[in-house]
Amino acid sequence: MLLLDALYGLALVDGHLQRAEQDTLRRVSQGLGLSEEEFRSVTARHFGDGQVHYARLGLTPEASDADVKRAFRQLAATHHPDRVANLGKGAVEQASRRFQEIRESYEEILRLRGR
Question: What is the pLDDT, as a whole number, of residue 49?
Fold first, then answer.
């Protein structure tokens, strides 16, 4: 886990973790025989555990990838600004903010999971 932690530090020197770097770190973790929980633990040290993002989707960190995707799709459909367009500008703006929060949380969860 210490080696993976050090590799995360190196990958984040430029301030952003590229997709190829994420994939490589996941492969290194698997090659070292680390469990998914250990991998997430190291990831959480560098990015946080994402509790607020899971809560926005009504989930816990133990949710499967399929559960995360399903929750995102249901919430995105429910809170899409087009659904409230007939209620006026204020309703559309509020729905747009909520939709953006849902999308950002989904993307952050995917990033925390190395996807």
Answer: 63
- The amino acid occupying position 16 is H
- Listing DSSP states for 4-36 in one string gives HHHHHHHHTTTS---HHHHHHHHHHHHHTT--H
| 88 Cβ neighbours under 8 A, 6+ residues apart | none
What is the full DSSP assignment across 39-72?
Answer: HHHHHHHHH---HHHHHHTT--TT--HHHHHHHH
Q: Convert the pLDDT of each residue in 17-62 to its tens digit.
A: 777 888 899 899 999 999 988 887 888 777 766 788 888 899 888 8
Of 23, 36, 75, 35, which Cα lies nearest the Cα of 53?
Answer: 75
Residue in 104, 115, 97, 93 with CA at minimum distance from that of residue 57: 104
Distance CA 68, CA 114 (A): 14
